[in-house]
Amino acid sequence: MKVLLLNGSPYKNGCTHTALSEIAAELNRLGIETQELWVGNKPIRSCIGCGGCFQEKKCVFTDDGVNECSQALQNADGFIVGAPVHYAGPAGACTAFLDRLFYGKSSLYAYKPAAAIVSCRRGGASASFDRLNKYFTISSMPVVSSQYWNSVHGNTPDEVRQDLEGMQTMRTLARNMAWMLRCIQAGKDAGVPLPEKEKRVSTNYIR
To answer: Is the pTM of this model over 0.70?
Structure first.
């Protein structure tokens, strides 16, 4: 089994990576393989709504890691997104990346357990956490929880490591993810089918 970790911070080895590394170490201890991808620190295009992804199942922009991440997520069993808090919300580059990762392609990730974690110096963690979970709950991805809302606090990696409750929350999240992955695999082995899907209905407010 494999879990893909997405580091949505402009700092490759910063606070968000520190939290994700705590998760990865616990998953690895439990026999779950992990892969961390970094969104990078170069400009990331936002979605322009061209619709090309609906035909090709990949983004028309190929100059960043969105398509690479999409392929890695399709090959993974679970997904964890980490983002720093900027102005009480997830980093803009991270949400631009996720908009393009999910738009037109969310059906490819259905039923993969997912979770979000956020890193902040002081405030905005809950709002950011809620924002990131929206990508999963519109995509039929079971959300994995922990013992508290998934956040760590600190202005440097060393400070994050001193957030003992936050780091414990990361380890608990890892154990819950491993448990859910094993439960899903046990269900597959027992012949439990995926949920029946209805044809999608879209109701516009203005007709």
So the answer is: yes
DSSP assignment of 107-165 = GGGTT--EEEEEEESSS-HHHHHHHHHHHHHTTT-PBP--SS-SEEE-SSHHHHHH-HH
Classify domain 2-189 at the CATH superfamily level: Flavodoxin domain (3.40.50.360)
Query: Within 10 Å of residue 92's Cβ, how many Cβ atoms?
Result: 15
Nearest partner of 141 among 117, 177, 115, judged by Cα: 115
Is residue 89 helix, strand or coil?
A: strand
Report the distance separating Cα 181 and Cα 184, nearest Å.
Answer: 5
d(CA 61, CA 88): 28
Q: What is the C-alpha to C-alpha distance for residues 67 and 86, in angstroms, rounded to an integer? A: 25
The one-letter amino acid code at 176 reads: N
| CB-CB contact of 176 with 3 (8 Å) | no
In the chain, the largest separation of any two C-alpha atoms, in whole Å, equals 55
What is the per-residue pLDDT across 20-57, written as a single tens digit (0 to 9) for each? 999 999 999 999 999 999 999 999 999 999 999 998 88
